[in-house]
Amino acid sequence: MALAPVLLQMSPDDNVAIVGNAGGLPLGAVLPDGTTLIDAVPQAHKVTLSAIAQGEPVRRYGVVIGYATQDLAAGRWVHDRLLSMPAAPGLTDLPKATRTAATGAAMQVPDTVARATFMGYRNPDGSVGTRNLLGITTTVQCVAGVLANAMTRITQELLPKYPNVDGAVALDHAYGCGVAIDAPDAIIPIRTVRNISLNPNFGGELMVVSLGCEKLQPERLLPLGSIPVAAVSDGACEVPGLDVVRLQDNQHLGFQAMIQAIVDAADRHLQRLNTRRREPVPISELVVGVQCGGSDALSGVTANPLVGRVTDWLVGAGATVMFSENTEVRDAVDQLTARAATVEVADAIVRELAWYDAYLQRGQVDRSANTTPGNKAGGLSNITEKAMGSIVKSGHRAIDHVLSPGEKLKPTQKGLVFAATPASDFICGTLQLAAGMNLHLFTTGRGTPYGLAECPVLKIATRTDLANRWHDLMDVNAGCIADGECTLDEMALTLFTLMVDVASGRRKSWAEHWGLHNQRVLFNPAPIT
Amino acid sequence: MALAPVLLQMSPDDNVAIVGNAGGLPLGAVLPDGTTLIDAVPQAHKVTLSAIAQGEPVRRYGVVIGYATQDLAAGRWVHDRLLSMPAAPGLTDLPKATRTAATGAAMQVPDTVARATFMGYRNPDGSVGTRNLLGITTTVQCVAGVLANAMTRITQELLPKYPNVDGAVALDHAYGCGVAIDAPDAIIPIRTVRNISLNPNFGGELMVVSLGCEKLQPERLLPLGSIPVAAVSDGACEVPGLDVVRLQDNQHLGFQAMIQAIVDAADRHLQRLNTRRREPVPISELVVGVQCGGSDALSGVTANPLVGRVTDWLVGAGATVMFSENTEVRDAVDQLTARAATVEVADAIVRELAWYDAYLQRGQVDRSANTTPGNKAGGLSNITEKAMGSIVKSGHRAIDHVLSPGEKLKPTQKGLVFAATPASDFICGTLQLAAGMNLHLFTTGRGTPYGLAECPVLKIATRTDLANRWHDLMDVNAGCIADGECTLDEMALTLFTLMVDVASGRRKSWAEHWGLHNQRVLFNPAPIT
To answer: Which residues on B lie below 8 Å from A471 (Cβ)?
Structure first.
């Protein structure tokens, strides 16, 4: 039986397309236009639709993703050695806030989305949690071993007493001492640790474990003036002020006394958390972080467009969606600045990407350091092609706000947000947590078991093969779009329904089911000492 | 009852001394020379022994630790605001390998030390372990959640079957992807992860958990040519070559299959580790990493000189001692280059410290970013004073070798080693593990519950108050030296005996007893992406 070739062309003027067939296409396969393949082409890899002369542009997504390094006949496999990377677009003379609002049927928010509610936990600061977790903040890595020990008791002795609490998370990290805490860039890790402790899923309870002599003193980590008052006083603590267990304090006579002090403090917070109940809240209270990792060429064809559609719906319904990953948007900077809601937003996008260019240059690299062996094996030839597939997650609406790394959304900041973070999965996720994410969408083509303790993560496979093999890790299979067995709109509704169920606590993501937790990894561009 | 003042003067030409009394000394207290205190002086803080005019040098350890910012009468408390910091010494025109060998009674190695043996695990590569641990190496943070899940089964189901194995350690880390892996400085985190997996306490067994698409591929992490062959073949694996569980491999159908593959691989390694037995080995097989953290002004008076004495003995007996902490030796660079065994070693010291100066400068800070609020509260006014107390740990012998961050000692490299690392406790410890440490000495004045899963850590308190309060965290109390209740030699023998017992597995450190494990924190001066 001859294989029916599935070709995925993103834009009418593209001169390459992606092979959708699960097993790829063999040499000699005949394409719908009669072209015969002169190479075998793996799934998700590019094939030339017409002859491309050496030095001529190769187009995908309607964008030049590189130049042919030799003459390419029609029907050739375009792997990364046949493509030279374009220079990064400049950061001057960009179009700013020039694009008219996207319209058309795809931008219509379905009624089921616009009117949707989910069952969330309302917080004193106006945010809404999707989980009811005790987060125990730490000022310094020194206390991590002691806190881990206390967590065993908290989990075994306390949590069973408080059935309305979903869990407890030790917010340990590698920062806090042995770092140049007054360096200009130190603000990034400091505010990240601070803002993670204020994530909506921790219900405004603040409990801190400190050593005592560390550079990042509790008062510096969480200056009371900067924190919503309800989070630390207003009945939230016996004594108004920060609830700190400081291991070096004289009253702790030995290790068990330290553990007991932590367990006692946790007990007080858990009692309060246990009184909370879910209530119906409008869908606009979702703060969704979108990310991709272990990408392949189908990421930009199936899973990322799926996320983009849901992003368009959610933002249209008044919710907040954050996209990130500086090096994966850098080559599309002109698209982003054009989509900025205002010139100020466009300028902020340029400011963040210029800062990141300089940061990479200090380390003698550029954005091309992003791509992985897995990306290339998966058909992504370079960062330009990867970026075009990555930004699809951000949909088509205007970009309303920009966050620097570790910054937190203000309660008034709704809509589409560019949270400027590195593309590293764990660092991006950590910074989106700090920004206030309460639900996380993660697309993957190669496959990753990524998960966070602080927030539900829904993982979306770009291809059916991965979804089948990792049947108990992938929450959604976007591969059916490439297979022709579902439409993007159908899958978007399926994904949206799952998001509401998971946000409401009626369902768990697979990562939650198995308790898969990646480290919070801080972005610290400042020196350590 | 009048308090008998205890003053600790480090060098005869010092014009300040440290108050040893546990509660400090009150205003009006009369010093042995008749001077009356005109300030109350806390314990471990400095007091002027004679008048010092504004701009004149203040001397401790026979070294200028700063200049008086105003006229200081005799009997004044010299806190950090009264002292301006000296400029860092230059890195040119330094004395190189000029010092004659230290002699004198203190340098005589006691027979009990010179002839000592401990019960260790001999490894195929010639190194000796003090513990018999399964280390499971990872290429990337993505796999951390899956491995943590597998570790629960390994700990509960497998370890009880293998009583000769001391434990299993998941060597997860924040590196491996989302990083500029070809940046010039990326070699540091890569070789650190590699060399930790080759630490003597893992017995030469190499087991790797990989995702599949990550930048740090197993073959790049552990290129077979660079690894002692015995570690990966020679019966150590069913199939010669690296033992890798790659989660994205097609044979893993779902999460439980991945877990089972890891557990099965661990079982094979544990079977071999379980056949190993301790045997008597000469004391020269110890590879001791020394470090201080949460220091106070007594660190340089009690605990660090104690460690320095043991260092002199151990190195004299043919063992290896590593000292580290770039920013805490920077101000003493001239002492170190003079003590270098050869001009090449002196040049290597200068090379490392110059590299670190430039690294700090890139982030717009210098070595003065090192000191912490706790240091200052503990009496250390600035990094110069802190450095003079810190290098005391290195004793008095010639410096034989220098390691760059993450490098591993060659089997032939014995003696006193400057392992050039940041001073951050966890990063220094991580890099000393990579260098091949099999026993860790850690001095502290403010107190830290620091511990490592990979290697026993003995913690030494600088003062009796801390040792009393943290009775089940501090392994040794060097405070008795300041109290006049023990001599340095007595305590050095006590510490040495404890080291032999712990290295032999007859005793556990407190950190081991409680299972206190800090994260391995990598030093990555290269950008992330």
So the answer is: 253-254
